[in-house]
Amino acid sequence: MTIELCLLFFLVALVYSAAGFGGGSSYLAILALWGIDFQLMKSTALLCNVAVVAGGVYHFYKSGHLPMKKALLLSFVSVPLAFVGSYLPLKQETFFLLLGVALTLAAVFMCYRLFFERNQQTETLREGNGALYGCIGGAIGLLSGMTGIGGGIYLAPVLRLGKYDTAKNVAGLSSFFILVNSIAGLLGQAAKKAIVFEPAFAGPLLLAVIIGGQIGARLSARVLKPKWVAGATAVLILYAGVRMLIK
Fold it and tell me: How far is CA 85 from CA 80, 145, 188, in A?
């Protein structure tokens, strides 16, 4: 089982990191389908998120695609709410209900990015309402903390639809958003002493996502176009989400 999970986590990290994501939604979907304990799921997914996007944040910052003023504005409300969401005591049934909704929505957002979003060479940006995007980021942060999903899968389409920044900068912003919210989620779990870490289980998965994430972060969209993998991932997430909702 560990070898299969490591391979799946490696592929997810490879695909997601190239777009600035951590892959938390897919990690959770895979772990849920494998029947892993829900507390272990959350801790493992958040740790994998941090391991993947930490390198991505550095890569985007060095390449000039991480506008820090906007990144801090988006995260100002989301970070404390991610902590609160992670600290809230949730029963297993409530967690899986929320996760089912979150995964189903994540699959919808992924399908939008895959089939409807176009990467334009020249983009006309709008003067965005910073307070509005900050509030949206806060809501996503709360959901992130409660479920263990980093939140970038929701934030990026909102920023792209609002023409908040260029495609590459949105990827950088999403990567930073996932990193800080995942750390806040882990701190929330630590505060209520709910972090579940099993080295024999999580260690190989972390190694797999670090390798996949480092490779993905160094590949541009022109070099890596894994739409077939991302499409399959969206189907997996949708299946896991719907399955949890109808249980």
Answer: 9, 4, 8
